[in-house]
Design goal:
CATH superfamily of the largest domain: Aldolase class I
Number of helices: 17
Distance between the termini: 10 Å
Protein name: FMN-linked oxidoreductase
Cofactor: FMN
Order of helices and strands: EHEEHEEEEHEHHEHEHEHEHHHHHHHHH
Number of domains: 2
Biased composition (Pro residues): 392-402
Domain DUS-like FMN-binding: 36-342
CATH topology of the largest domain: TIM Barrel
Largest sheet: 9 strands, parallel
Strand content: 5-15%
Structural class: alpha/beta
CATH architecture of the largest domain: Alpha-Beta Barrel
Organism: Athelia psychrophila
Bound molecules: flavin mononucleotide
Number of strands: 12
Length: 432
């Protein structure tokens, strides 16, 4: 993909006039928040920025395998400020200084030394390093990464310990795991992980063999949270699994006692679910803005197209036919130029400025967090919505599930349609 002329200089875009508020993360910053989960492909830079604009407290980048980062060339676009870590043919990971205070970089690794080298290669652009200990896909587990680490706790802990020792104190180290089959095993593993010096632990409340559409076992988390609190280290436990919105996060926190909640699938459909009032009519309110920003960022066309095609939500002004027509056009288009008609008079830079403004004018994190904590105690419903079923036998999970795999149904109030959410494809081409 041709890119604009670039600079390999290590630092920021001169356009970033305002200094981000949050400089370094501490364990406290992992509490009382609602976070964007790591998602291969779907957790691309524009999606993370829209999530931040609409209230995500922190955002995880998509998993990057350690070796892939070792030979990446870091380049900075002097126009937009976008930082790309380029492989031989394309950018493997892109970020922007505006998200740095909130960005956790996730590594896939089965080797402490490689993990440290990969972490060092990106640490100037991120605030934390997370170790993926949950991906059940064979490409991960065959190499001893992801969910394979759950049954190799010595290796898992040696990677976390190496990362903690090698990273400067202002870079947090965290881990994202799944539940183990028994509670006892899970508690043992969690204790070992906490003793590695992590700032937080995310628990995807499914076991390695559970399918994404099986209801997350959130009821199991309460005991784990109490256990971690009992360790007295002040480490945050982040719930992941089946949270569909900011409001729903209150329900999950009430059931589990978790300090924070992380959202994946629902945010893939609509990155504004972090707001108490998520966008509706995403074909008018989100996709054109996402398109403008992606074009301004010179964002990989195929990735844009893939992500934009995941966006769905409740509709008021947009008809079903209009929504379908836009998605068909997205599927058929070959470049950003095909969308001159919906670009409108706003520019991608306008979109970026708006996001920058929203991020810089977010309420003070401490007060926002306290407010969420109070609301959780006062208002949250405690029952699980009726459309969460726990059917079917075990299989593999995201990130690279087959394109037609079934997924957990998202309530229509969020998704705008009752069918299961489209799944990101293993075979989805990144090129147009
Ligand atoms: C498209 C997609 C990509 C994913 N990629 C990753 C990943 O890179 N790293 C990871 O730890 N989990 C990944 N996951 C799993 C999610 O982070 C999350 O654990 C899982 O989807 C459960 O959350 P949910 O119920 O909110 O969807 C991915 C999930 C999806 C849907």
């Amino acid at each position: 993909m041709p890119r604009r002329p670039h600079s390999t200089s290590p630092h920021d875009s001169p356009r970033l006039a305002k200094k981000p508020k949050l400089q370094h993360l501490s364990p406290e910053n992992f509490k009382n928040g609602v976070f964007l989960a790591p998602m291969v492909r779907s957790g691309a830079l524009p999606t993370r920025l829209f999530a931040l604009k609409h209230g995500a407290d922190l955002v995880w980048g998509p998993e990057m395998v350690d070796k892939a980062m070792l030979n990446a060339e870091r380049v900075v676009d002097p126009v937009s400020g976008v930082i790309s870590y380029n492989g031989k043919s394309r950018a493997m990971f892109t970020t922007h200084p505006i998200e740095k205070p909130y960005l956790i970089f996730q590594i896939g690794s089965a080797d402490p030394e490689l993990a440290v080298r990969a972490a060092k290669s990106v640490m100037q652009d991120v605030s934390g390093i997370d170790l993926n200990c949950g991906c059940p896909k064979p490409f991960s587990t065959h190499a001893g990464m992801g969910a394979a680490l759950l049954s190799n706790p010595d290796l898992l802990c040696s990677i976390l310990t190496a990362l903690r020792e090698a990273m400067p104190p202002e870079i947090t180290v965290t881990a994202k795991i799944r539940l183990l089959p028994t509670q006892e095993e899970t508690l043992k593993l969690v204790e070992r992980i906490i003793n590695c010096g992590v700032s937080a632990i995310t628990i995807h409340c499914r076991t390695r063999n559970m399918r994404p559409r099986e209801a997350a076992l959130v009821e199991r988390l309460r005991e784990i949270v109490d256990f971690v609190e009992g360790l007295g280290k002040g480490i945050a436990v982040i719930e992941n699994g089946d949270c569909v919105s900011f409001e729903d996060a209150k329900r999950i926190r009430t059931i589990t006692g978790a300090h924070s909640v992380m959202i994946a699938t629902a945010a893939e459909s609509n990155p504004s679910v972090f707001s108490p009032t998520p966008l509706i009519d995403v074909e008018e309110t989100l996709i054109p803005a996402y398109l403008r920003l992606s074009k301004y960022f010179d964002h990989h066309w195929g990735l844009f197209k893939y992500c934009a095609n995941q966006f769905h939500g409740p509709r008021q002004n947009v008809t079903k036919a209009q929504a379908q027509a836009l998605h068909q056009k997205l599927s058929a288009a070959k470049s950003y130029d095909a969308f001159a008609d919906i670009m409108g008079s706003r520019t991608g830079e306008d979109e970026f400025r708006e996001i920058e403004e929203a991020i810089n004018s977010r309420p003070d994190r401490h007060h926002a967090a306290l407010k969420l904590a109070e609301e959780v105690h006062d208002n949250a419903p405690v029952s699980t919505p009726p459309n969460r079923e726990n059917p079917e036998p075990p299989s593999l999970d995201a990130p690279l599930a087959p394109p037609n795999a079934r997924r957990m149904p998202i309530p229509s109030v969020i998704s705008g349609h009752d069918a299961v959410t489209p799944t990101p494809g293993g075979g989805v081409p990144l090129a147009a």
